[in-house]
Amino acid sequence: MTKSSWRCYKKAWIALSVVLALAVAMGGASPVFAQDPAQALYDDAMSQYEWGDYDQAMAAFEELLALYPASDLADDAQYMLGQCYVQLERYDDVIFAFYTAAYKYPQSDRADDALIALAGHLYSQDYMPQALDAYEQLVKDYPQSEHAAYAQTCIGWLYGGTGDVERAKAELEKVITNYPDSPSAEVAKASLEELAPPFPVHLILLGVAGVAGLAALALLLFLLVRRRQPAPVVAPPVPPPARPVRPRGRPEEFVSRRPPARPEGPPERLGGGRPSGPPETLD
Predict the structure, then answer these.
(1) Do 136 and 155 meet the contact criterion of CB atoms below 8 Å apart?
(2) In contact, 103 and 71? CB cutoff 8 Å
(3) Which of 139, 167, 213, 248 sits 20 to 30 Å CA-CA off 229?
(4) Largest Cα–Cα distance of the chain, in whole Å?
């Protein structure tokens, strides 16, 4: 480079520096270096969010979406709006905000973040079918996302919660096959072990109940059959032998058989016995 060329470059640089200095001094701004107003709003909203002023941050994000809906920052503002609702515990607005961020801006780098957040909040509020749809949408549209393995694991859990054990096993096996190096693969293996068929206690109880029912039925049939049988014939008791009756004759015969009557006077002395009367007195 010659000395003349160097002098020309030096003069041009000095002139440009002077122009920039004058523009700053006059309070103006060069059109080339003017800041994007959407970016300024987004930066202000993020500052408020980081400071914990979620109401002000929410207002700034909503203003950005209203004034600059076609901005490259609109998808980020919509996602952060959902995060503000989370901090304010406005869960119905949370679902709407994340749903909009996921489905209105499907090409955004925030779409998978919005889907995983949407599915989680749907699950926490017992919207199980909708949560399952969100997880499946994430795995289908964003298989390379950092959230895909976790979403696939949640799909298996949700099918297991509905009682579809075979489908749950199939979905959890996809985690091990498609994402073998992810932490979710170990979780899926543990979940598969939990889904193994337990000891069939219910079958044993069912068998015991069946046996008890059959025994009760057999006892009932036995009682019914026994009730219909005729009573056994019992022989009448043998009467004791009759006492012999002394034959009676005619009345005159009965009188003749009676012993003689006792005499009225004193008995006669028999064989010189002692008289029964009083002794005689001697003169």
Answers:
(1) yes
(2) no
(3) 213
(4) 226
